[in-house]
Amino acid sequence: MRIFLTACAALALVACGQTTPATETPVTTETPVAAAPTTAAEATAQDTCGASQYRAMIGTNIAAATFPADSGIRIIQPNTPVTQDFSAQRLNVIVDATGVITSLECY
After folding, report:
1. How far apart are CA 9 and CA 22, in angstroms?
2. Of 77, 66, 69, 107, nearest in space to 90 by CA
């Protein structure tokens, strides 16, 4: 009887043991999505903010530039404090001390 109870207990423990399911790698036909840019250089290179449409303004005075209202464009002059949050869709217009647009960057 003791052997029978020990065998039943052992079978119960084996039945509760961890099982390892077979894993399969899912097959997808989707095109991989490019990773979102994490730096200003990557965002600018990918033109995530649409800077390319304003490239002709580089070298002109900011006073002569017009941008669409509510477009998420930030003008940065020397010694202007700016937030350090990263937004790949935000266009930053960098202006020198004389008011000339020197670069356009996404961050």
Report:
1. 27
2. 107
Q: What is the per-residue pLDDT for 2?
A: 78
Rounded to whole angstroms, the Cα distance separating 90 from 87 reads 6
Look over the chain and give the mean of its residue pLDDT values, rounded to a whole number.
84
Three-state DSSP state, 12: helix
- In a 3-state reduction of DSSP, which class is residue 48? coil
Residue with token string 């700016």:
82
- Domain ranges in the chain? 34-107
CATH architecture of 34-107: 2-Layer Sandwich (3.30)
Lowest mean pLDDT across 3-7, 30-34, 54-58, 92-96 = 30-34
**Given this model, what pLDDT does residue 61 score?**
97
Q: Following DSSP, what letter does each residue of 21-33 receive, concatenated?
A: ----PPP--SPPP
